[in-house]
Design a protein that fits this description.
With 843 residues, the protein is α+β, with helices and mostly antiparallel strands. The protein contains 14 helices and 37 strands. It is found in: Cytoplasm.
């Protein structure tokens, strides 16, 4: 895919010329930051040659001398006529005035573009795929809008290919509708594929947007077959802008080699480096506008190798003789530079450009000629000396004023709005996509103010030691405990993995950006997209079980009063949890972010049933949008662990789960059912319904092991993808990289987290390092100490009171909702003070 770069307070238009009866098959993926996106078609506008005004009566290649000065642009200037050829002018400031980006963008709706579909916001790191059926061809525009961002540039991966519609198409015959599926199509072209000889490319100077900042060098590529002019930074492949030349007004001034390209929405002020380049570009633009043949026909074998870095001259059977003349002229102007030598050389090149009835263009190069017919980019260092400010000679041998041509080395002005504004570094490397420059919802700030966030980036080690032991055989164990709750039975430590249940449930927060994307975008309720995205987050937790090695073991059971905190400055959340009840076991969690909170108090149980075990989790997950107050709730699905006696052990979610919104909308996820011999079933289908139980048009499909795709009748968006597993994960408990970080103590936690935190468990730390014997001994001791404490409390008539959570209502511990204690004695305020004196001594 091609990478596009869109500046802050700016937009980029990707133009595509499409023939009749075609389909545009495209994909787009914003990187790290979101961006707005829409699709337009340019209205037909046939040029009328008879209406050409004074500044467009002739092409530059036919003008050996500049025309008389024009003090002002003629008032009768016709845009449609002006797009038929390259116009002449002498005073650029009298022809075009700079247009502000904001005003230009607001004029899109008033221009000759017709909106086909507005996608509004494309969420960061999500791949969207769509198809458009085109009956009547023309020029189409993909508009990427970053005008809402004040400081941050955006990058987008984009690709498009044009395919031929099948002869007996079953598609809906409307040019303004997208197509969900097209079969038996032949590909006309990939948008990024360019055959040799189909482009003219070189370095030119492009005027910066701000006044008095002069010009800067950029690499320009003109694609003849598509009629588009694109530009890039030198030594960079990110597209930074594109113009449809045939539909634009192109004006040229031979006296200072200036070119102005006006599409009606954008104006580019360009300057060729030398006269040879200038003439080559003018001829090329005229050729595109007149639809003349443009690409050279000479093959690679016919070309004569050059030692002077110039391109082949594709002209008739006397090619070799012509090239010899070009070489001699080039040698003359190089070894004996003079205005006369330059003029002879240039006259000859112009003559060649007009030969063969305009059937081909010439681009002869030397050390000062960069225009080449090629499909390869040239290194700008072959043509320029990067030594700060560089003044180029004009065609009369004089000097251009220093303030007129400015070439900046490397990084450019930090206050530049257009060409050289760099991205603000993004700390997150895990997909955290909250756009800091977007308006954020106003929320009530708690007194701890999300302490310890924000925080400087933390380097985290995700790797863990290789496991050198296998879990014990369960055959005899199962025979004695069929139908019993596994959580109430003491099991050998070698049956565990190096996490606790508190850490295991913290893995629900591996993908917080899915929630942020769902709540931070203006999705319409009637489409169902918001609740479907929340459903994708709810299901993403299941992916922790996708490595089958992880299904053979269980987490350590926390002690009563044990806690666990998780602060991820890169993902933008903080989590605190506590084991609040021992029988039944209940684990309470609270998660804070800037825009939403998550509460859940879960009580898991696992029972053996012959060849498989059943894991059920009692309790609800409650997600609250801080800005709107909307609440989403769901419960964890029942999971079956199959083949626990023999064969390959694996986990498989079963049945359905429902994600409900307080607005009345809901999403129902149904897991595919596998046959007896089909192995693990991984498919999931999620459908959305409104308050009247009417099914909505959007849905989600995918697998809980890999990815989820949001689907409509016209497009597809990849809204979630599973994170990476650890290297050599088969010998590391099947952990993901996220799980590998959960037991690490970083500078964020060291000396600050509660002494009851799971990271302090000595048996857990020894087990992760591979010392199973000592870990078994310590585990038994910790459990025995817990039994002693419980007996003492029973004898004293006391009950355990959690330190950081409290029940909202009366009732059994596994049936009520639990909430985090707020105020002075909240976990985070106590953490800030280091106030842990009244906590239980667990180890």
């Amino acid at each position: 895919m091609e990478t596009l770069e869109i500046h802050s307070k700016d937009f980029l238009i990707k133009w595509i010329n499409v023939p009749d009866n075609s389909v545009i098959d495209w994909e787009a993926k914003p990187l790290k930051k979101s961006i707005n996106f829409a699709f337009y078609k340019k209205n037909d506008d046939s040029p009328n040659q008879s209406q050409l005004s004074l500044d467009s009566t002739s092409t530059i290649s036919e003008l050996p001398t500049p025309p008389p000065p024009i003090t002002a642009p003629p008032p009768q200037r016709s845009r449609s006529a002006s797009t038929a050829s390259v116009n002449q002018f002498t005073k650029s400031n009298n022809v075009y005035k700079a247009k502000s980006r904001a005003s230009t963008l607001s004029l899109i709706g008033e221009s000759d573009l017709t909106l086909i579909k507005n996608y509004n916001k494309l969420v960061a790191n999500e791949l969207i795929h769509g198809k458009f059926e085109i009956d009547k061809g023309g020029m189409f525009a993909f508009v990427f809008d970053n005008s809402f961002s004040k400081t941050i540039s955006k990058s987008v991966e984009f690709s498009a290919k044009i395919v031929k519609k099948p002869e007996e198409s079953s598609l809906v015959p409307h040019a303004t509708e997208e197509v969900a599926q097209v079969t038996d199509q032949s590909v006309f072209e990939e948008e990024n594929e360019v055959a040799p000889g189909e482009v003219l490319q070189s370095v030119m100077l492009k005027k910066r947007k701000k006044k008095l900042q002069g010009f800067t060098k950029r690499y320009f590529v003109l694609n003849f077959s598509r009629g588009t002019l694109s530009y890039f930074k030198v030594n960079d492949t990110k597209l930074r802008g594109q113009m449809p030349i045939k539909e634009s007004i192109v004006s040229a001034n031979p006296s200072n080699r200036e070119l102005i390209v006006d599409s009606g929405m954008e104006v580019w002020h360009l300057k060729a480096v030398n006269k040879a380049d200038f003439n080559a570009w003018v001829n090329a633009f005229n050729s595109v506008k007149k639809e003349e043949p443009t690409s050279p026909t000479q093959t690679q074998d016919e070309a004569t190798p050059s030692n002077n870095n110039y391109s082949s001259v594709p002209l008739s059977s006397s090619n070799s003789e012509v090239q010899v003349i070009v070489q001699k002229l080039n040698q003359l102007k190089t070894e004996h530079p003079s205005p006369l030598a330059n003029e002879i050389y240039q006259d000859f090149m112009n003559l060649l450009a007009r030969t063969r009835n305009g059937e081909a263009l010439v681009s002869a190069g030397s050390t000062d000629i960069q225009s080449v017919f090629s499909s390869e980019f040239h290194d700008a260092n072959d043509h320029f000396e990067d030594n700060g400010v560089y003044i180029f000679d004009d065609e009369e041998g004089g000097k251009l004023p220093q303030e007129e041509v400015v070439v900046v080395e490397g990084e450019t002005s930090s206050d530049e709005e257009e060409d050289d504004e760099e991205d603000i570094p993004v700390v997150a490397d895990h997909g955290y996509v909250q756009d800091r420059d977007l308006p954020q919802p106003t929320v009530a700030v708690e007194e701890d103010n999300l302490y310890p966030l924000p925080h400087d980036p933390i380097k985290r080690d995700f790797d863990i030691p290789v496991c050198n032991h296998s879990p014990p055989s369960l055959l005899s164990f199962v025979r004695k405990n069929v139908g019993k709750d596994l959580s109430t039975i003491a099991m050998p430590v070698t049956y565990n993995e190096p996490t606790t249940v508190l850490q295991k449930f913290a893995e629900m927060l591996e993908y917080p950006e899915v929630v942020t994307n769902a709540l931070g975008s203006d999705f319409q309720d009637e489409s169902g997209e918001k609740v479907l995205r929340v459903a994708a987050f709810a299901l993403s937790y299941l992916s922790t079980q996708r490595a089958k090695e992880r299904n053979k073991r269980k987490p350590f059971t926390p002690l009563l009063g044990e806690t666990y905190e998780l602060v991820r400055e890169d993902l933008g959340f903080r989590l605190v949890s506590e084991k609040v009840s021992h029988r039944p076991p209940v684990f309470a969690f609270h998660v804070d972010t800037e825009s939403w909170t998550l509460d859940y108090a879960l009580s898991p149980s696992q029972k053996f049933w012959g060849k498989q075990s059943e894991v059920t989790t009692k309790g609800s997950v409650i997600l609250t949008d801080k800005s709107t107050g909307e609440v989403f709730t769901w419960t964890q699905p029942t999971t079956l662990i199959k083949n626990i006696i023999a064969g390959e052990t694996y986990a498989e979610p079963n049945g359905t789960i429902t994600i409900k919104s307080s607005s009345g909308y809901k999403a129902v996820a149904e897991f595919a059912k596998g046959g007896m011999w089909s192995g693990r079933s991984e498919g999931v289908t999620v459908k959305a319904f409104d308050g009247k139980k009417k099914e909505l048009k959007y849905s989600v499909e995918g697998t809980w092991t890999e990815s989820f795709t949001l689907k409509t009748n016209t497009t597809e968006k990849t809204i979630w993808e599973a994170g990476e597993l650890l290297p050599n994960f088969q010998k590391k408990f099947g952990f993901t990289k996220f799980a590998g970080t959960l037991n690490k103590i970083t500078p964020l936690e060291k000396g600050k987290m509660a002494p009851t935190d799971s990271r302090h468990r000595p048996d857990l730390q020894l087990y992760e390092q591979g010392d199973t014997e000592e870990s078994e001994t310590l585990k038994n001791k910790l459990e025995q100490d817990q039994r002693v404490r419980r007996k003492q409390m029973e004898d004293a008539g006391e009950v355990h009171v959690p330190k950081f959570f409290k029940p909202k209502t009366d009732g059994p511990a596994d049936e009520v909702e639990w909430e985090l204690i707020q105020g002075e004695n909240s976990y985070w305020n106590r953490r800030k003070r280091g106030d842990w004196d009244d906590l239980l001594k667990l180890w």
